[in-house]
Amino acid sequence: MTRPSRVHIREVGPRDGFQNEPEHIPTEQKVRLINALAAAGLKRIEVASFVRPDVIPQLADGVEVLNRIDVPDDVRLMVLIPNSRGLDNALKVREKFHEAAIFVSASETHNKRNVNRTVAETMADNEKMAARIRGEGLDCAAVVATSFGCPYEGKVELDRVLGLAERFAEAGATEIGFGDTTGMANPAYVSEFFAAALERLPGVEVTAHFHNTRGQGLANAYAALEAGCASFESSFGELGGCPVPPGSTGNIATEDLVSMFHEMGVETGLSLPGLIDAARAAQDVLGRKLTSHSIVAGPVNWN
C-alpha cells in the first residue's frame, strides 16, 4: 500500500477520556474543552454516550453537553450507543449529532464483562440498531474492541475480528474502527492486520484506535499508516482507558499523533498548538499532570 498523504482524526477524549476519570467533570468545563478542540480544527469529535447514568455517571450530562457546545457547522459529532434502549434515548435528541457508533468485543469474555451479554446477543442487537440509525439519516459507525488481543483470552484470531467487521458492513456501517482496547498490539501485527482489513472491507472507512498502555501506541499508528490506513482515533492529553480490566491506560494523545504525522509530512488539517493548548487546559481542569509528551515539549521548532 502507498502511505496516505492525508489522514482523518476523530477526537474521542470527551467520551472515551472523560468516562474514565474518577470524578465528574463539570458540564461547563466539558463544553469549554470540546469547543477548544473544535477551534483546533477537529472535524470529528465523539462527545457523549447513551449508557445508563448509574453505569457511567461521568457521562450522565451527555444531553446537556450536546445542547450547550458551540462548534462550527462542519464539525461532525458522534455518540456511542450500547444497546437499543440507549438508542431510544439518543434519538430523542437526534438533531444534535451526526453519527452513532455501535460496538462489540471480539473476545467473548471481554464482551460479557463489558456489557453483560454474549457476542451473539450484542451483534443481534447491533444489526437492529444499524438499520434504525440509517433509517434516521445518521451515519452508522461500528467498533470492534479487543481486536488485537484480550486480557482474559489472549490471542484473538484475525478472521474472527474481520468476520465481525464484515457483519457490521453488511448491516450498513460505513466506518469500522478496530480498538486495541488494553494495549496488546504490536507494530508487526498491526501492519498485517490493517493490510487484511483494508482488503476485506472495500468501500468501508477503516479506523485505527490504539491505546498507549505499554508505550507502543504511536509505533502502532505508524504501522497502520504504512499499511494504508488513513483514519485514526485519539484522545487529547492521552486521556482514556478501559474499565475492564483495571490498569488499561489511555488512548494515544491526539497532539502526539498529530506531531508525528506533521513531522512525516502527512496532512491532518489540525492546529498542533491549538491541540496542545486544549490538552493543557484539560490538565488544569483535572488538576493533575497528563501523560502526553507534547504537553511538555510543545511542537518541534526547526528555526
Question: What layout of secondary structure does this protein have?
Answer:
Layout: E1 8-11, H1 13-17, H2 27-39, E2 44-49, H3 62-68, E3 76-80, H4 84-91, E4 99-105, H5 108-115, H6 119-135, E5 139-145, H7 158-171, E6 175-180, H8 187-200, E7 205-210, H9 217-226, E8 231-234, H10 254-263, H11 272-286, H12 294-297
Parallel strand pairs: 1-8, 2-3, 3-4, 4-5, 5-6, 6-7, 7-8
User: What is the structural class?
Assistant: alpha/beta
User: What integer is the average pLDDT?
Assistant: 96
Percentage beta strand: 5-15%
Count of distinct strands = 8
**How many domains make up the coordinates?**
1
> Given the C-alpha coordinates, what overall shape results?
globular
Q: Quickly name the level 1 CATH class.
A: Alpha Beta
- The CATH superfamily is Aldolase class I
Family: Belongs to the HMG-CoA lyase family.
Keywords: Lyase, Metal-binding
Domain Pyruvate carboxyltransferase: 7-276
GO molecular function: hydroxymethylglutaryl-CoA lyase activity; metal ion binding
